[in-house]
Automatic annotation (TrEMBL), chain A:
It comes from Fictibacillus phosphorivorans. PROSITE patterns: ABC_TRANSPORTER_2. Keywords: ATP-binding, Nucleotide-binding, Transport. GO terms for molecular function: ATP binding; ATP hydrolysis activity. This is Sugar ABC transporter ATP-binding protein. Transmembrane segments: none annotated. Coiled coil: none annotated. InterPro entries: AAA+_ATPase, ABC_transporter-like_ATP-bd, ABC_transporter_ATP-binding, P-loop_NTPase.
Length: 342, 264
């Protein structure tokens, strides 16, 4: 369904010195900097697969999706979706795909949701009967009934996202790209959206490529994940495999009495464990990651308690979150060693 | 294919009209303010002619006629193609343009059909009123053929406005927002509301062959004015319109290509 070979995208960014002088200078001759957003990635996604496409901020996920949808022309490499080269036959490609970009709306801003769908029906040339059936189904699963009469601009984020999702699937596309469809949503809406996606896949065999920073989404929807880091694919395989590969990973969160600003791992466990960089603002919690093959959880805990006043702790096993966090921060084992050689 | 687009356009229009009716107050105010603006322009011409009888050989009603064609032609652009103004700041910069590229219809069509501008109706009313006021005072007998030519000329005038705006709006694909340029160029069209013979040769050539605003009002009007000396050139108006549109659309496609390779 989706075939990608050595796909690359370089952005040219105009570089400019700061200040007015820089601005004037840039009028006459510009320096360009090349940003390699996607570097030689390859993937093969079968019809009906649901694949999680994950990576840290700026890894190149959205850029890849834009190339798959035909919005962006690749710098080099091959891409084929359903036998069509998206950037060459954009319109043809468009009739077989659906897309949700979490940050911006696909619907018509000023007109009520139902009328938006009516327009989409004509744009995608959906047969009336199929349209009615599909809409009835979506209204039920996503609870859209109370929203249909409201203009998009008056909807809350969660309401809008439900409507967006319905719009993306309305013409029963073969492939749907979801770029952060659950961003900023509460748990209840997330659950509803996940169920909807799973149901669409089960019923219509829709191929789904999903990017998200919520690992719960991935774990519930996808069987396969592709992890991308700094423009390159660093993992492509099933979730089970990655769990098995990292099954010995453990993460223990310690809540300390003092701020962790000056925290360092105790000498004794420093060779076997690492601190996971913080993503939130809590200055009293530190996450320590280690392999249960090298050191036991009990040792880590007792050592920590010897050196720091610990208020509370939680032990997490190999959940996909912790694995991915680890991979983002360190790269895969092979990559880490590779980098150390240099 | 064509019928499909016509039908789609009709459906888009219907939605846009509904939104317009929702904001009834905006509609009225918009139409009124545009009408006021136009009146101010005409009033200015009137004052000038209170003091002189002829401007460089042109009578008040001849000038009024030129003015009327300009207003009517412009209103076509204003009502149906107003979205061109917003390409940079409303579509490209906030990333909304991507949406048009993943729909199975022509992105330019989608972009244009996205909006109907109510204010343009004010201009249309004024244009029609001014033309019909001036018409009886011209030395020409109005038959079916003349009416037909007048309508063709006005439509051509409208599409020249569209083509020029499309051309310069397209620059937004390279420079994020070309609005200031579009504005500056558009303001040149004000020159074309007066007989081009009153200007320096350079300006005249510019407005005839480079940025053909001359064909949005002065030349088409001159066709109906006996002894203006521009009757032949005036007949080129529809040709100029078609050529401008072709060039602008070609440029738009180039811009689109640049956009899809830079992504911003
Ligand atoms: N239009 C653009 N012009 C220049 N650089 C860009 C452009 N779009 C993205 N980039 C750069 O390319 C890289 C990849 O960006 P991309 O949006 O694909 O990341 P992402 O994986 O989707 O990240 P996020 O999780 O934050 O959405 C980033 O370094 C970004 O700064
Ligand atoms: Mg992104």
């Amino acid at each position: 369904m989706i075939v990608v070979k050595n796909l690359e995208k370089y952005y040219k960014i105009a570089k400019r010195d700061p200040g007015l002088r820089g601005a004037v200078k840039s009028l006459f001759h510009r320096k360009y900097e090349t940003k390699k957003a996607v570097k030689r990635i390859s993937m093969h996604i079968e019809s009906g697969e649901m694949v999680g496409y994950i990576g840290a901020n700026g890894a190149g996920k959205s850029t890849t999706i834009k190339m798959l949808t035909g919005i962006l022309t690749p710098t080099s490499g091959e891409v084929k979706v359903n036998g069509i080269i998206p950037y060459e036959n954009r319109k043809q490609n468009a009739s077989h795909i659906g897309a949700v970009f979490g940050q911006r709306t696909q619907l018509f801003w000023d007109i009520p949701v139902r009328e938006s769908y009516e327009l989409l029906k004509h744009i995608y040339e959906i047969p009336q009967k199929q349209y009615e059936e599909t809409l009835a189904e979506f209204v039920e699963v996503l609870h859209l009934e109370p929203l249909l009469g409201i203009p998009v601009r008056q909807l809350s984020l969660g309401q809008k996202m439900r409507c967006e999702l319905a719009a993306a699937f309305l013409h029963r596309p073969k492939v749907v790209y979801l770029d952060e469809p659950t961003i900023g949503l509460d748990v209840a809406v997330k659950v509803r959206i996940r169920n909807f996606i799973k149901q669409m896949n089960a019923r219509y065999g829709t191929t789904v490529l999903l990017t998200t920073h919520d690992m719960q989404d991935i774990e519930e929807i996808c069987h396969r994940i592709i992890i991308i880091d700094d423009g390159s694919v660093i993992y492509d395989g099933s979730i089970q495999d990655i769990k098995a590969q990292f099954g010995d990973k453990r993460v223990i969160q310690f809540e300390l009495e003092h701020s962790i600003d000056h925290f360092v791992l105790p000498e004794e466990i420093r060779s076997a464990a690492v601190v996971i960089p913080k993503t939130d603002e809590d200055h009293h919690v530190v996450s320590v990651s280690f392999s249960s093959k090298e050191i036991s959880g009990a040792e880590v805990i007792s050592c920590m308690m010897k050196h720091y006043p610990v208020l509370d702790l939680t032990i997490a096993d190999a959940k996909i979150e912790t694995i991915v966090e680890e991979i983002y921060s360190k790269g895969l084992k092979g990559r880490v060693q590779h980098e150390e050689i240099h | 294919m064509l019928t499909r687009y016509l039908k789609l356009y009709y459906l888009f229009c219907k939605q846009n009209l509904k939104v317009m009716m929702e904001y009834r107050m905006d509609f009225l105010l918009g139409v009124l303010s545009v009408m006021l603006q136009q009146f101010a322009g005409i009033f200015f011409v009137k004052i000038v002619f209170d003091h002189i009888h002829q401007l460089n050989g042109w009578t008040f009603y001849e000038i009024l006629f030129i003015y009327g064609i300009a207003a009517t032609g412009r209103s076509i652009h204003h009502i149906f193609f107003d979205n061109l103004w917003t390409l940079g700041w409303q579509y490209i910069r906030p990333g909304k343009f991507d949406r048009l590229l993943i729909r199975p219809i022509n992105p330019l069509f989608h972009f244009i059909a996205d909006r109907l501008q109510q204010d343009g109706f004010g201009q249309l009313f004024i244009g029609i009123i001014v033309i019909s006021t001036a018409m009886p005072h011209l030395d020409i007998s109005w038959g079916v053929l003349e009416f037909f030519i007048l309508i063709v000329m006005i439509i051509a005038s409208g599409f020249i406005f569209v083509a020029i705006n499309l051309f310069f709006a397209t620059l937004s694909f390279w420079m994020v927002d070309s609005l200031p340029i579009v504005w500056t160029i558009f303001n040149l069209s004000d020159f074309a509301r007066y007989p081009l013979t009153i200007y320096h040769k350079g300006i005249r050539h510019l407005l005839t062959w480079i940025i053909p605003y001359g064909f949005t009002a002065f030349y088409p009007a001159a066709y109906f004015i006996e002894g203006s000396g521009f009757q032949k050139l005036a007949l080129l108006t529809p040709v100029v319109a078609i050529v401008s549109c072709v060039v602008a659309y070609w440029f738009w496609n180039k811009g689109l290509k640049a956009f899809t390779s830079t992504g911003s």
